[in-house]
Amino acid sequence: MSPKMGRPKAENPLTIEVKARIDKETNEKLVKYCRDNNVTRTDVVREGIKRVLEKNK
Q: From the first residue on, what is the mean pLDDT of each consecutive set of 10 residues in the chain (57 residues)?
């Protein structure tokens, strides 16, 4: 029997989804920031969470 094929399992899988509602103006600023900095909206949210948690230490 051959070994399983496919992607290896991630050490820390990203399985939790977070949703938030934002206004149109904030979304436009976010989209512009992402385009200008070549990052995803998810990257920005993760970085924001990290900064808030570090600030709170």
A: 78 92 98 98 96 92
Q: How far apart are CA 49 and CA 52, in angstroms?
A: 5
pTM of the model: 0.74
In a domain, 44, yes or no: yes
User: What's the domain count of the chain?
Assistant: 1
Q: How far is CA 27 from CA 18, 24, 33, 37, 49, in A?
A: 16, 5, 10, 15, 17
In a domain, 29, yes or no: yes
**3-state class of 18 per DSSP?**
coil
